[in-house]
Amino acid sequence: MGLSVILPTKDEEKTIGRCLNGIFSQFFSKIECIIVDGYSKDRTVKIAESFAAQYPVKIYQMEGNIGEARDYAVKMASGDIIFSTDADAVIKRKDHFCKIVSDLKDKEVAVWTGIVRDPDFYITVPVAGANMAFRKRDYESVGGFPPYSTAEDVILFSRLQKLGRWIMRSDYEVIMPTNIFKWIGNWFSFFVLRN
């Protein structure tokens, strides 16, 4: 059972290296990373290409919003399990993917999520998009990410929950700077757009 990490990027040169180091430092070895870049103007793609020389990283470029980028990444993924994250998120635990694969062996579990912790404010949020995993076939059965530029992850999480139970692991976190106002906007958008 392989795991594909989907990673949308846009001008992420300051953070993508740390993100990819966290991904490829995992104990679980059947990993590929699908990067969908929104035509970055900085060194994001060059940094990603340096990782692609050593690891299974595929890089695509496309115009579109984050929902469309995540959806395209899933379509290009070969793994049975998809892990969705952001380019400014860093996975700390080396057994992160092992836990995801183990938990998703339970056929009743439709979606897995962990915590996002802000390194400066110690805000922890059980947010979906930066630390969420699911089976590719379940993703396809619910219609995937909606083509929105906000709340796409929360809406997908809600769709997947309808297929079965979900697991939230508070001890499996990613470190990521937060923008509390953006998150409030995402949750507001979720309630407006969820149908």
Question: Which structural class is indicated by helix and strand composition?
Answer: alpha/beta
Stretches with pLDDT under 50, minimum 5 residues: none
Number of helical segments with 4 or more residues: 7
Task: Give the SSE string.
Answer: EHEHEHEEHEEEHHEH
Please estimate the helix content: 25-40%
CATH top level label: Alpha Beta
Structural shape: globular
User: From the coordinates shown, what is the CATH architecture?
Assistant: Alpha-Beta Complex
Radius of gyration: 15 Å
Mean pLDDT: 88
Per DSSP E runs of 2 or more residues, the count of β-strands stands at 9
Q: Describe the oligomeric state of these chains in a short phrase.
A: single chain
Largest sheet, described in full?
Answer: 9 strands, mixed
**CATH-derived topology:** Spore Coat Polysaccharide Biosynthesis Protein SpsA, Chain A
Strand content: 25-35%
Specify the CATH homologous superfamily: Spore Coat Polysaccharide Biosynthesis Protein SpsA, Chain A
What this model shows, in words?
This protein has 195 residues and is α/β, with parallel strands linked by helices. The chain has helices at residues 16-23, 44-52, 66-76, 96-103, 136-141, 152-161, 180-193; strands spanning 3-9, 31-37, 57-61, 81-84, 90-91, 109-117, 124-125, 132-135, 165-175. The protein contains seven helices and nine strands. Strands 1, 2, 3, 4, 5, 6, 7, 8 and 9 form a nine-stranded mixed sheet that branches. It is globular.
